[in-house]
Amino acid sequence: MMKIRSFLKFAALGAALVFFLCGMSFGAEQVAGEAVKSSMPWWAWPLILFVVTFFMGIVAVLGGVGGGVLFVPIIGGFFPFHIDFVRGAGLLVALAGALAAGPGLLKKGMADLRLALPVALIASSCAIVGAMIGLALPAKVVNIALGGTILGIVAIMLMAKKSEYPEVKQADALSTALRINGVYHELSTGHDINWKIHRTPKGLALFIIIGVMAGMFGLGAGWANVPVLNLVMGAPLKVSVATSKFLLSITDTSAAWIYVNNGAVLPMMVVPSIIGIMLGSIVGVQILAKTKPAAIRYMVMGLLLFAGTRALLKGLAIWN
Amino acid sequence: MSNKLKATEEQISYAKVLDFGMKLGLLVLVITFIIYLTGLLPPHIPTDDLPRYWGMSVHKYLEATGIHTGWTWLGMLGKGDFLNFVGIAFLAGVTILCYLRIIPILFRKKDTVYGILAILEVLVLVLAASGILKAGGH
Predict the structure, then answer these.
(1) Å from B60 to nearest chain A CA?
(2) Residue A66 covered by a domain
């Protein structure tokens, strides 16, 4: 009974968010495919942005996703800001979150520097390429590709399995040469677990694609980092999640510089978003300590499905 | 997430620089944004005019506002909006400082491969930050 009530509460919250976002998209009228007219005073949008990113921060923590993956499709789809500025802000939001989480994850040894460094070099180099491609493409093409990517992320969230301790029978030659391994002390069982990785060349190759997509869409890339580190390369789930978060601080740095240097950063968008999502994350962590409603993950998927469809239809000029 | 793993010397050093840099960057970001909002320094783009520009593509926005790309914002720090780029650039630059901190540690430990990887990463990030790479128009 409690589960049904909890589910209904979050379903109602999700529905309210969707209606709110729809209302905002009608409040910002698209004109001639580029400039957007709004009847509201200038300060209303940054204020709404702050409030929405605050709730986004809560939902992101409870739903187990990064802020960037929610930020770009939702803000890009329902606010009057051009997708160029949204992606620039999205990267900085994801970067700020990763920078804030990084020190704790490294100090506690949950994120692994030896695993992260080679991956980061590939992903950050490719993120530069992705950012340059993204800024060179017309908005409608970016929206279509973004919509497709977001719908793909929903599919990954629905289907991808996770493996707490993937079985790695033998480390491959490259990871052995780079000495990428570690000792994992599992408190719940009291066992020390030695971990190593395999399929390193394949995993590194996948980070070429992840880097390009991270730079192109400004999404952050935890949704792709974790499955590759965990399922392809065989790193334990907790190491994969922590290393992925830390990786974003490097990958997004390179892409963020391209957006900053090409003028695609508006402080009036960036600062309220960073502060809003960080405050929301703090509240989200406190809520998470008390309860972990499974329904929230479905709500996040529902929101992404809606925002991804919106981006796709916006790109196809069906829903402006 | 309560598991304990052994953190290496370079990992701890990286974390310390990151922790300090991130906190300082966020503090600067908040302070400069307050200066921007309160109008203590006049912005380059009046806040009332912002809605005219934020719906434009970045290329049209740059043309319409006469803003130049790259590090030209350094010469516009007297403007409230551009002052915010100090905090933004600091947050985007702190990772470079972290890498610079661990390079000597890696070479001292004769971890040459990772030392070279760290140098290459610094070069990649410096290239991205340099402003040399320009995106094409659309």
Answers:
(1) 10
(2) yes
**pTM for the predicted model, two decimal places:** 0.89
B113 touches chain A (CB under 8 A): yes
Chain A residues near residue B47 by CB distance under 8 angstroms = 42-43, 268
Residue A8 placed within a domain: no
Among A97, A71, A49, A10, which residue's Cα sits nearest to residue A287? A10
* B contacts of A81 (beta carbons < 8 Å): 54-55
Residues sharing a CB contact under 8 Å with residue A35, sequence separation 6 or more, in sequence order:
B52, B55, B56
- pLDDT > 70 in chain B, percent: 93
pLDDT for B81-133, tens place per residue?
999 999 999 999 999 999 999 999 999 999 999 999 999 999 999 999 999 98
**Residue A9 falls within a domain, yes or no?**
no
Min CA distance, B71 vs chain A (Å)? 7
> Which residues of chain B does A80 touch, with a Cβ-Cβ cutoff of 8 Å?
51, 54-55
For residue B78, is pLDDT > 60? yes
Q: Nearest CA to CA, how far is B123 from chain A (Å)?
A: 10
In a domain, B47, yes or no: yes
For chain A, how many structural domains are there in total? 1
B112 within a domain of the structure (yes/no): no
Token pair, residue B59, equals 């290329």
Q: pLDDT digit string (tens) for A17-68?
A: 555 565 555 555 544 344 456 678 899 999 999 999 999 999 888 887 888 8
A263 touches chain B (CB under 8 A): yes
CA atoms within a 13 Å half-sphere pointing along the CA-CB vector of A252: 35
> Would residue B33 count as lying in a domain?
yes
A6 part of a folded domain: no
Do the Cβ atoms of A256 and A112 come closer than 8 Å?
no
**Could you tell me if residue B35 is inside a domain?**
yes
Asked if A99 lies within 8 A of B33 by C-beta distance, the reply is no
- The DSSP bridge partners found for residue A181 are A196
pLDDT at A161: 80
The residue segments making up the domain with residue A93 are: 14-26+41-315
